[in-house]
Design brief:
The chain is mostly helical. It has 7 helices and no strands. It is 61% helix and 0% strand. It is extended.
């Protein structure tokens, strides 16, 4: 069974996406040039699947790869050792992710339902308290 490459539109877990195709485009261009010697603007006929494969294969020593490594870092000791620019990059990405979650009522509702289901699973309840609270609003 072949695994389909990501298309950047429907990633299964947005929490694990560490770059933005539009905002990070200059980093993507620079990374493709560095790693593959490809000037993407000169390849207007590149198939989407090939582009996805190339971006998915970018190494940490590329411009995008180094930014993604900073954004994705979770180890507090490593983060504590970041310089001021690395901390800014890490903090701004985390803030952007948090803001995007707060901007979407659907996302908030889904998060609340997930939390309710998890608590019900952990404590054996049916989530009736949450349902009553939602109905009262």
């Amino acid at each position: 069974m072949t695994r389909q490459l990501p298309d950047f539109a429907g990633q299964p877990n947005k929490a694990d996406i560490w770059y933005d195709l539009i905002d990070d485009w200059p980093l993507i261009e620079a990374s493709l040039a560095k790693q593959y010697s490809i000037r993407i603007r000169q390849h207007g006929d590149m198939p989407w699947e090939e582009f996805c494969s190339l971006v998915a294969g970018l190494m940490p020593d590329t411009p995008l790869g180094s930014i993604v490594a900073i954004r994705a870092e979770k180890d507090r000791k490593v983060i504590k050792g970041f310089n001021s620019e690395q901390r800014r990059i890490h903090r701004e990405w985390r803030q952007r992710q948090a803001d995007s979650k707060l901007a979407s009522p659907e996302t908030l509702e889904q998060a609340a339902k997930s939390l309710e289901a998890e608590l019900a699973r952990m404590f054996g309840g049916g989530g009736a308290i949450w349902q009553e609270a939602v109905q009262d609003e």
